[in-house]
Amino acid sequence: MQAVSQMFDILKRPTWPFFKCLRKCHLPRVSVRRCVASGGTPSSQKKKKRAKSREHVGSPSLSWEEKLADTVTPLWRLNYEEQLRRKQDQQQRILLELSNQLTELSGVSCSLPGIPLLPIIPSPVKYHYRNKSTFSINKGVDGNPKTVGFYIGTGKGGNIVCVNGDHLLNIPEKHKLVARYYEDFIRQSPLEPCIVFHDGGHWREVTVRTNAAGNTMAIVYFHPQCLTTEEICTHKDALVEYFTKGPGSVCDVDSLYFQESVMTRCSHQQSPYQLLHGQPHIHEELLGYKFRISADAFFQVNRAAAESLYQTVGELSHTTGSDILLDVCSGTGAIGISMSSRVKKVIGIEIIEQAVEDAKYNAMLNKVSNCEFIVGKAEVVLPKLITSLGSVGGLTAVVNPSRAGLHYRVIKALRNHPCIHRLVYISCKPDGEAMRNFRDLCCSSEQHRKLSGKPFAPRVAVPVDMFPHTLHCELVLVFER
Ligand SMILES: C[S@@+](CC[C@H](N)C(=O)[O-])C[C@H]1O[C@@H](n2cnc3c(N)ncnc32)[C@H](O)[C@@H]1O
User: Binding residues for S-adenosyl-L-methionine, per the UniProt record (predicted)?
Assistant: First the structure.
């Protein structure tokens, strides 16, 4: 394989001929003010992230690369042992906070016993571990609005700068390569980038997914504004041509997807992921099981650390062969399938349709016949489903929601089912919305009349480092009653 630095050199060559002819027959620029589309306000989470990164923009002694690294991978200056110490301390503080909140809820004057925290499980891979990266488009350090990378600064402060992420420790070379070539492509394209939705423009971020076998999926997000279908087709053709026959072919992209979207995030149902070239899925292997992953399905970003996480969850669940396992927020079925040999039956619930199709396929692929995956919001599906689950055998729940935590109705359904004695909660942000879930699992029934089931109590917690060089880590928290 060509060295990555050599591949970057190719980018120095002049305009690719396809664009020359595209420029000649270039579609007229539309007045963007006329065709403002709905949506497009950045999510509050993104706003907060940008606000956080604001201070870096003003510090003149640091290079742009350092400022970006401090924003995206704030622990990069520390050795890994020190990073783990910090994360362990941080998780300890979160558990102390939880303990204090539970003491307050219980109304007793003395503190409840602390929650045992086991030592953090390190990530087996420390560098370039991400299997999925999303690169934004914005104005670069040199003022070029067609710069692909990660941005620092805030829209409000008017100081956003997009810096390429070539130096970031958590991103693999292949992702960086695709980002560089995508930048080259959009720079040659006659279409403008879409930086702020209501200002018009078309080219948006690119997501790159890779697997351990070296396959690559690229997903290009595009704002259609007022372009016709035929006009969009011309640009899709240019994209395919560039990445299959043009300079971008060095990226060796196995799947090239395109999503026309007028919102920050769109599901496949809202706006289909269009396969422009190659394979529809990417595959990954975990704990000896094979997983097919669709373009919009979730998969843990650090494959090796995900194995540690699922192994830990399997061990802490203490399931038996007669148990039913509820896998709430099941994604492509990784937890349920990897635990399927330990239980009688797995029932997974997941909101993303493609992920559920993947999960069903993955069960077949692995010749696992005791898994059922249901598509829908857990807060809608679980309350109905749980009443049909009888008391024969045990019932164990593993919940792994996104940062937003679980809906109250999910907690209520789990708490009020008398057969659930153990619940394993996996959270990548236990000090956020998940804390509300923990309180609702553990408060007394007098405090919450609708939570009539016996309260749970946290028994043990294990942090698993999924994201070296960042402040984040997964926490596995076991509740029992
Ligand atoms: C952190 S991921 C975990 C996925 C899976 N457990 C795994 O380890 O690969 C969270 C999953 O919850 C799903 N999700 C988010 N909100 C949901 C809801 N209200 N009901 C069901 N699933 C939801 C997401 O689509 C995502 O697949």
Answer: 300, 350, 400
